[in-house]
Write a structure and sequence with these properties.
With about 270 residues, this protein is α/β, with parallel strands linked by helices. Helix content is about 45%, strand content about 15%. The strands form 2 sheets. The chain has a 6-stranded parallel sheet with strand order 4-3-1-2-9-10, with helices on both faces. α1 crosses α11 and α5 packs across α7. It binds D-glutamic acid. The site of D-glutamic acid has 17 residues, from α3.
């Protein structure tokens, strides 16, 4: 038995952890942020895959039976290879799940016009994962995407509320809206972006819905554990959370409070 591992390149996955913990408080969680090597969004496919695999191995070594890649970039670029190539050899009974599939399964239902916008990192947009996955479940949907390479660095450095930070965010949101006048919903396809959800809501037309992934991923995990009782039994249940970061722990503990409404005491981990 072990905790559920939650991985992100940095702090973004904490937005997912918050919703997962609220929905499934009985389980133990081990969060790993690769802050020393964030952001992942502008890195190549091979590098994101290599870094993500190192993180997954670390979480497995620390007892996790199930790991959630709470990072869209890692889900887009590394999940499939890890599931198909690495897991069967490395840990056939363990599981790694991502955040793109649960979101794309239900997004079609949330849009009336069936024109869906996606804001994400460069890596996620380039992978085209959102368009491919949304069209599997909603073939009639049109997906328009816009990459926001500056948002993760802005958010990680707590600059997203500054005048300049807001101006960058606004410019990207307007660039997405300009791609199709019928767009009625925008998916925040990066786990860092819920931090700026309220600001985005304040600058888009009233009828445009902003969709964050946390609650969707939490519901999907609850459903997964319901359907996979053997895995569920292997998830320990003392209601604890531990945090690992590949960067400075004091900085992590301080910044984590922007994403998570609780006191954080992280431990350092070396990856790679
Ligand atoms: N939170 C990650 C995601 O969902 C950010 C990726 C990055 O580090 O650029 O894509």
């Amino acid at each position: 038995m072990g905790p559920i591992g939650i991985f992100d390149s940095g702090y973004g996955g904490l937005t997912i952890l918050a919703d997962i913990q609220a929905r499934l408080p009985q389980y133990d969680y081990l969060y790993l942020g690769d802050n020393a090597r964030a952001p992942y969004g502008t890195r190549s496919f091979d590098v994101v895959y290599e870094f993500t695999l190192q993180a997954v191995k670390e979480l497995f070594d620390r007892g996790c039976e199930l790991v959630i890649l709470a990072c869209n970039t890692a889900s887009a670029k590394a999940l499939r290879s890890i599931q198909q190539k690495d897991l069967p050899l490395m840990a056939p009974n363990k599981r790694v799940l991502g955040v793109i599939r649960p979101s794309t399964e239900i997004i079609g239902e949330l849009s009336e016009s069936k024109v869906i916008g996606v804001l994400a990192t460069q890596g996620t947009v380039k992978s085209n994962s959102y368009e491919i996955e949304i069209n599997k479940f909603s073939p009639e949907a049109k997906v328009v995407q816009h990459a926001c390479p500056l948002w993760v660095p802005l958010i990680e450095n707590n600059e997203h509320t500054s005048t300049d930070g807001k101006a960058f965010i606004k410019k990207d949101v307007e660039a997405l809206l300009a791609k199709d006048p019928n767009l009625d919903s925008i998916v925040l396809g990066c786990t860092h972006y819920p931090v700026v959800k309220e600001y985005i809501e304040s600058i888009v037309p009233k009828d445009v819905k902003i969709i964050a992934q946390g609650k969707i991923v939490a519901e999907s995990l609850a459903d997964y554990l319901d359907r996979h009782s053997k895995m569920e039994e292997r998830c320990s249940k003392k209601g604890t959370i531990r945090f690992l970061t590949s960067e400075n722990t004091e900085e992590f503990d301080e910044n984590a409070s922007v994403y998570l409404d609780q006191k954080v005491r992280s431990e350092h981990v070396s990856l790679g």
